[in-house]
Write a structure and sequence with these properties.
Blueprint: H1 2-25, E1 32-33, H2 41-54, H3 57-60, H4 77-83, H5 88-96, H6 108-121, H7 135-138, E2 141-142
Parallel strand pairs: 1-2
Helix pairs in contact: 2-6, 5-6
């Protein structure tokens, strides 16, 4: 009788464990793509002002197509291929480290604004709401071609 009782609890625990694994594997429904219009035109304009102020063109070229040596492009198929499947949080983290020789720190909001310009110049649509400077939200938005 005691063995039955223990095996019954083990069976219940196994079902709960399997159910939990299946639920974790399901998409949360909150996953978005940059194709969903996740920024505004005004936000992208702030990003444009920032890249001019920072001088991104000094390394990445006047049209951000990439610079000499191994300076990557910020526009076009090479940029999109490099970032395909990653999240906006990943891109924001990369932007925060640029330029590499600068000791200046920008706010997350400024980095997000720069990112929205990159979305715009790479052909992703603007939407009605600004992209928030929230790491959790940025981590839910995938870069897709």
């Amino acid at each position: 009788m005691k063995i039955r009782y223990v095996s019954g609890w083990l069976a219940i625990a196994a079902v709960i464990g399997i159910g939990h694994s299946v639920l974790r594997a399901q998409p949360t429904g909150s996953q978005q793509s940059v194709k969903d219009g996740v920024y505004t035109e005004v936000q992208a304009q702030r990003g444009r002002d920032l890249i001019i102020k920072i001088g991104c063109a000094n390394c990445h070229g006047d049209t951000l197509e990439g610079g000499p040596g191994e300076v990557p492009p910020l526009v076009g198929t090479a940029f999109l291929s490099d970032w395909e499947g990653q999240t906006l949080r990943d891109l924001a983290n990369q932007i925060s480290s640029m330029p590499p020789d600068s000791g200046a720190k920008r706010s997350l909001q400024e980095n997000v604004d720069i990112m929205t310009l990159l979305l715009q110049i790479n052909g992703y649509p603007a939407g009605k709401n600004e992209l928030p400077a929230d790491q959790a939200v940025l981590g839910q938005i995938k870069i897709a071609q």
